Amino acid sequence: MKKAFLLITIIVGMLCSVSAQVCRISNSNDNVEVTSYYFKDNNTIVVAVSNDSQDISANVTVNIKVHASYKSSSTYKDFDLSGKKLAKPNGETLIEIKLPSDYVQGPSSTIEVKGITGTKCQN
């Protein structure tokens, strides 16, 4: 049952629209874009970003909002979290973000990508 719920959560996360979450790399026509996000396990979120540049790496920070459950009850709380990583050219990078230690993914947990930023990102 847990595996089925995890699979459904992954599919829903991948189907969510994240097209507005793009970092346009300055002085180029290249982008780093959020392509998917999902719960990896009960307390880890994975955000996938894709860099379409052929030769420019970009340090990016992904900001998310997570609705998660307290470990020993059905109480939920919202968290603003972030994760950083170097998005290498012409590929996908996975950014793992941990929930606070007392919180886990619950049946009503959600993830919302708030934005992607970086030193090479133009406004």
List the helices and strands and how they pair.
Elements: H1 2-15, E1 22-25, E2 31-41, E3 44-51, E4 58-70, E5 76-87, E6 91-98, E7 103-104, E8 110-118, E9 121-122
Antiparallel strand pairs: 1-2, 1-9, 2-3, 3-6, 4-5, 4-7, 4-8
Quick structural gist:
Helix content is 11%, strand content 56%. It is mainly beta and 123 residues long.
Structure characterization notes:
The chain has 123 residues and is mainly β. It is built from one helix and nine strands; from the N terminus they run H-E-E-E-E-E-E-E-E-E. The strands form two sheets. A five-stranded antiparallel β-sheet has the order 6-3-2-1-9, covered by helices on one side. A hairpin with a 2-residue loop joins strand 2 (31-41) and strand 3 (44-51).
Ends distance? 44 Å
Strand-residue proportion: over 45%
Shape: elongated
Listing every helix as H and every strand as E from the N terminus to the C terminus, the arrangement reads HEEEEEEEEE
Strand order of the largest sheet: 6-3-2-1-9
Give the uncertain stretches in residue-range form.
12-19
- In helices, the fraction of residues equals 10-25%
The tally of beta strands, per DSSP, is: 9
Could you describe the largest sheet, including whether it forms a barrel?
5 strands, antiparallel
Mean pLDDT: 87
Structural class: mainly beta
Q: Treating each run of at least 4 consecutive H or I residues as one helix, how many helices? A: 1
Oligomeric assembly: single chain
> What's the Cα radius of gyration?
15 Å
